[in-house]
Every structure is written in structure tokens, then in C-alpha cells.
Amino acid sequence: MSLYYFHRKLTSVYCILIFFACFPLFGEKETSFCVPPWDLDKIADCGVKHHPEFKMEVLRLKEIQGRKKISSYFFPSNPNVSGYVSKRSAASELIPVNSNHANNFQVMVSQEIYVGGKRETSIRIADEEFKTQAFRLESVRRNLYFRTLSLLARYTNYKKEEEVTRGLYDLTKEITRLAQARVKEGLAPAMDETLALSEELRMAKLWQQSKRKTEQSHGEISILLGLPTEKNFVWEGSFHFENGLPGEKEKIIEIALRNRPEISLSEKEIQLAMLRLEEVKLQKIPNLSFGAFVQNDGFNERVIGGQVSMPLTLWRDYEGETLVAKSKQEQSLETKESVERIIKQEVINAVSNYLTLKEEYSLFSKDILKQTDTDLQFLKEALRLGQIKVIDALNSQRVLYQTKLNHSQTGADFALSQIELVRVLGLEETTLTLGGKL
């Protein structure tokens, strides 16, 4: 248990320092490093730092810094200075003509002070707000980081799919040319030419679809990294999850609940709600105002005095504010329960996807893929020599094409499952390494 809280404390300190590590504080201009050559860390960092969602959370952290300074003020308000000047006249009863005059004035300075530990509570609230926002910033950073990796995995798959469909489209055009030649020589019925042309149109559509997905994914990456959309982006690679998994799902869920920043965030929100409830209760204790005055009263009479004042808690008893604060505290408890349920479901889904896709991807051996490429090239030669019919060549091409496409899609899904697994378990980004081509 002590190691657990020690880990949480280190995580809190790390999260609080994210702001200082990511952005300069005193108007320092940040040097952009989002330029080739690319590596995994550079792309992920650029994707995070250029995203408005992350920048908004950083700005909220700066806002809370201002609130921390406000809470550290020693007095709830500035001192109040007031005064007045008057002139008094007194007529004599015996000689009404003669009268006495006196100039009166008063200067008073008053200051409201905190009572009942309100300032200390306000400082604690500001500190908890800062820690809470630090965990929220870390949660946003991790989500954007893994979202960037997922986008890279999809982009790699779309490029590979485009290459596969383009190659098969060229092969289909060659089959169409051979079918037309056979029909022209009277070696095949005219329907073979129609079938070949229809298949060529189908492959052309699939190739264009793959091309559109690649261009759209390239646009997303360009916007994410702040690059010109016309600039070519070269990236090829696969992701590998290095760590093993415990055999029991309950232990895997415990790892996620221990590591995910969303849990720490929900716990901080509970503490923050408790402090705000305490702050509302302290509002029932009125602040005191102390004052001192200097007065010239009557006929040249000097008076120096002081006063104490306080508001009466009669009409506004803060019962409504207390109900609101209690309700928010209860909501924060339910929010934590909801977050835990979401994380548990995410872990179950991620583990299931990872294990099944890992087994599925292992079925595609290199020999099968190599033989598929060989068979695709054999179709053209077999059709030219009349060893196979056009309809059989087209059907065989569809089956072989689907094998290559399934390999590409399964590889991409497996890479995405590894990225998602590391995210939902709250593991360090270094547990996901970059390998060779998919």
C-alpha cells in the first residue's frame, strides 16, 4: 500500500511538472522541432503539443496558478478609508450676536480579516485544483499520444492497402487484355471479355477507395503535426508490445486501476469537493472588520478610537450553498465509480482484441504470403497459355487478393490493439516499441 501511494505521489509531481516541461513560462519562444527526419517520439510529441485540446488544458493550468495567488492574499479585501468634514456653530444665550464656531472632521480606516481558517482552506482548495488539473492534463496528453500512434498505424495500413489494390488493378488490366486477345482469336466466348472488364472496373474502384483513405489519413497527420498538406510524409513501421500479461483478468484490471491517471483525477476531484464543502460551512462564520478613527469632535476636542463590526447571518444562512456542495461531493463519488467501470470495460475489450488478433495475425506465415504473390503472377501466364479460363482466373484473383488484404488489415488491427492495450492499462509509452514493416 505504501508503494502505491508513493507511486501516486511521484505521478502527481510528474504531472505538475508537465506544464513547465512542455511550454516556456516567461514568454520564451518555443523552437519548433516538428520537421523530418521523423521518429516515434517526435511525431507523438508534435501531435500532442500542436493539439488545441492540450493547449487549452495548459492554459487552464496557468489560470489555476492565478487562483493560487489569489488564495494566498492575507485579507479578503483592500482596506477601506472614509472621512467627513463638518462645521458646527453655537450661539450664546446672553449675547446672541456672538457665536462660537468649530470645524469637525473624522478619518477612519477599516480592514476586513479572515476568521475561522478561511484563508488556509482557500489555499488548500487552490492547491488541490492545481493537482487535479495536472492529472487532467496528463490524461489528455496520454489520450492524444496514443491517438497519434493509432493514426500512424492506420496510415501505414492504408498505404499498404493502396499498393496491394494498385498491383491487382494492373494485373486485372493485363488479364482483360489477354481475354480480349483470346476472344478476338476465337479461343474464348465474348462473355469472357465482359467479365474481365467488369472485374477491372471493380478493382479500379477498390484502388480509388484505398487511395482516398490514404490521402485523407495523410491530411489528418499533416494537420496533427502542423505540416503543409502538400508535403510528402513518409512513415512505415509496426508497433510491438514488449511486456507480458498476467493470466487473470482481475490482475490486469488492478494494473489499469493503479496506473490510469483518470483514477487519480477522480480521487482528486473527490478531495476537492470535500474541501469546497468545508469552505461553504466556514462561510457561516462571518469575517470581522476592525477600524480605527481620528476625530475632531465638538469644540476642539480630539478623539481617537476604534471599532469592530461583523455581519449577522440571518437571512442568508448558506443552507442552499451547503446542499449544492454536498451534492457535488456525492457526484464526484459516483463519477469515480463510473470511471472505474469504464476502465474495467476498456481493459476487457482491449485484452480480448489483443489476444485474438495476435493469434489471428500469427496464422499469416511468410510462406503463404510469398506463395500468394507467386500465384497471382502465375494467373497471367496460365491464362495466356490457355491453361485456365477467364472466369476461373478472376475468381482465383479475388481469393488471393482477399488473402493479401486480410493480412494487411489484420496487421493494422493488431497494431491498434497493442496501442489500445498500453493506453487502457496506463503503462509507460516505452513499453510500446517500433518494429519493422507490417
UniProtKB/TrEMBL annotation:
InterPro entries in the record, alphabetically? MdtP/NodT-like, OMP_efflux
Which GO-annotated molecular functions does the record name?
efflux transmembrane transporter activity
Q: Name one Pfam family in it.
A: OEP
Q: Which family does it belong to?
A: Belongs to the outer membrane factor (OMF) (TC 1.B.17) family.
Q: Which PANTHER family match?
A: BLR4935 PROTEIN (PTHR30203:SF24), OUTER MEMBRANE CATION EFFLUX PROTEIN (PTHR30203)
The protein's name is TolC family protein
The organism is: Leptospira idonii
Q: Taxonomic lineage of this organism?
A: Bacteria, Pseudomonadati, Spirochaetota, Spirochaetia, Leptospirales
